[in-house]
């Protein structure tokens, strides 16, 4: 009879009936999630893993709550102190992660309805949900809301998370680009304008103009959020 391995564990997230535990024994690190509705995340992890790096699903048990066991991804999430010491790189990594995800052929995605101008979105594109090593994205986490949708779903969450984690002023463009999208039209309606949006958020330092509120988005960037 094989011996059971002893795994140490610690709670890394717990809120509103959802809990994530980090299990580790020897060289192996696993994550066990408990929540009422993890089937969607299981299915999306399995699908995404065929296109981009995502934690492998090792086990799933439906119930009240559901249980989802995955192997740990490689690297550290973008809120880790090692990354936050280089905030410009964090912005670049986040932009690169979303470009890769949005570049997946939406015809291959079974989650959501197809439509013109729609892409595969993460659904919760915040810094803790992306892993990186050095200057390379190495994993996509918490993909339970991954689906086909408009790119600004992710861009809005990304800019909010940059401000929340790096400080006021990080993320939104500081001025309207002369070659960028018009304020009167959706800037994500074609691949060229989407590329320009990502180029904008790659290197944007906090605002420091005298008399301005650093936490406010500049009025000229309103097109960034337009529907």
TrEMBL record:
The keyword GTP-binding does not apply. The keyword Transport does not apply. Residues 34-115, 118-170 form the Aminoglycoside phosphotransferase domain. GO terms for molecular function: kanamycin kinase activity. Residues 166-193, 208-227 are annotated as: Disordered. It comes from Microlunatus parietis. It comes from the Bacteria. This is Aminoglycoside 3'-phosphotransferase-2. Its EC number is 2.7.1.95. Pfam families: APH. Keywords: Transferase. Residues 176-187 have a biased composition (Low complexity).
